[in-house]
Amino acid sequence: MTRFDTIVVGAGMSGMTSARMLADAGQRVVVLEGRDRIGGRMNTDRASGFPVDLGASWIHGIDGSPLWDLTQALGIPTLEYTVGSFQVGGRPIENFDGDGAAMDAAATAQWIADVDEADRLLVEEIASSAPGDTYLDVTERALDRSGLDAERIDEIREFFRHRVEEQCGAWIGDLDAHGLDEDAIDGDEVIFPRGYDELPRRIGAGLDVRLNHTVTGVSRSASGVVVTAEGEDFTADRVIVTVPLGVLKTGRIAFTPPLPDEVSGPIERLGMGVFNKVFVQFPERFWNEDSYVIRALGEAGEHWHSWYDVSAVSGLPTLLTFAAGPFGRRMQELSDEDVVADSVAALRALYGTRVPAPTAHWITRWGQDRFSDGSYSHLAVGSSHHDHDALAGPVDDVLHFAGEATWGEEPATVGAAFYSGHRAAERILGRPVDLAAFAAAIREREQTADR
Asked: Is the dihedral of CA 121, 122, 128, 134 positive or negative?
């Protein structure tokens, strides 16, 4: 039986990053992945002849981003798309009021000003919040102080709820008051016209990745670790577990001996949200040519509230909308036909007969995916930002964790997955790993393979 230096569980962004860095340092590394593909929650569907990112889509803020630097170094093309973080303005947005009527420039400006003022008050309420306060608590206090009329407050309330659902995949009353503290975006946001999974696939090229190897047990001792996958035991000096928080919460991986409270506590306290995507393609565009987003406010947007124009990726008129939090969990129980019909009906409430019958669709159900059991982590009531970083371990110097849920500075992002994989590799090697050299080594391998 081959003994490895390090076993990596999971072939997503964090797993591929740590495995590549360790292999480049001369370690014997094997990656065990339950899926039949690399990428994890970065999942690009190319069956229609163009990429559809069913999982992660954006780099949320490119200024000072090592993930952006890696993307640039690898020559991966991107498209600027700076409203992926559910912003109220900043780019052309077609807003519709609670009755489904298009808002003119003056009404839109007033709406943006209302949200800006409510957000200013919200920052104050969060700063003075008590342990156990939810994001719903602090938003209601801010709205109470706003002095706005009831209708305008209702629209902002709805906006706050949807913002939490899109950013965290959770109900606003389940999110801690500090749940969006790390949500600042620095610089433009970008999407990937060739598909986001190009990153982990290129990072992982040439690694020993065993697909269809679902890990069910991790045992640690003074002599190292034994990882069980598909009835086969793999031994190594150490292991990095990069499965999503949702999988850790299910207990489907048995840790022997049990995880200490320092790690099991964060697993229990942190939340795992559901954020599903619905892409709908149309034979012709019925929205404004320069609009980034169609957004229904208030009652008109109770369920389907934002549609993002992602036509540039395929060259065909395509809108992307989301079903997240409790609505997302309900939606994923429905058939594709029912989901599409309901979302298109919401568009017709805004545009009437201008909305034609769709020609294609793509729908995700991340909450039903046994390899993720949700979309990404969030700060549930009773948890703290420290829980994210504490989850990384290590445990007994042989068991490490990585993935977006283990990076407190910006969890729930591909950047967090990348940085956490980098951190795990550095901890195992006991020295820094230069990210510019990491990218250069990937390019050099690719150029050598092309010769």
From this structure: positive
* DSSP state, residue 353: G
**In terms of DSSP bridges, do strands 93-96 and 190-191 run parallel, antiparallel, or are they unpaired?**
unpaired
Burial 103-137 (b: 16+ CB within 10 A, else e): beeeebeebbebbebbbebbeebbeebeeebbbbb
Residue with structure tokens 């999110």? 175
**What is the rounded (10 degree) CA torsion for 339, 341, 343, 347?**
170
Domain ranges of the chain: 3-44+195-270+379-450, 50-86+186-193+273-368
Tokens matching residue 264 = 């099991």
What are the DSSP E strand ranges found in 192-252?
209-210, 215-221, 224-229, 232-241
Q: Which residues contact 263 (CB under 8 A, 6 or more apart)?
A: 390, 391, 393, 395, 401
Q: In angstroms, rounded to a whole number, what is the distance separating the alpha carbons of residues 402 and 18?
A: 9
Residue 328, SS3? Answer: helix
Q: Is the pTM of this model over 0.85?
A: yes
Tens-digit pLDDT profile for residues 220-258: 998 999 999 999 999 999 999 999 999 999 999 999 999
In terms of CATH architecture, what is 3-44+195-270+379-450? 3-Layer(bba) Sandwich (3.50)
Q: Quick: pLDDT tens for 270-316.
A: 999 999 999 999 999 999 999 999 999 988 899 999 999 999 999 99
Dihedral angle sign, alpha carbons of residues 123, 418, 219, 6: negative
Question: Which ranges of 305-413 does DSSP label H, i.e. alpha helix?
Answer: 311-314, 325-331, 336-351, 385-390
The answer to whether 262 touches 323, Cβ cutoff 8 Å, is no
Tell me the H-state helices in 58-149: 66-73, 105-127, 135-146
- Say if CB 274 and CB 169 are below 8 A apart: yes
Question: What CATH number belongs to 50-86+186-193+273-368?
Answer: 3.90.660.10
Q: What's the chain's Rg over C-alpha atoms? A: 22
The position carrying tokens 């200024």 is 63
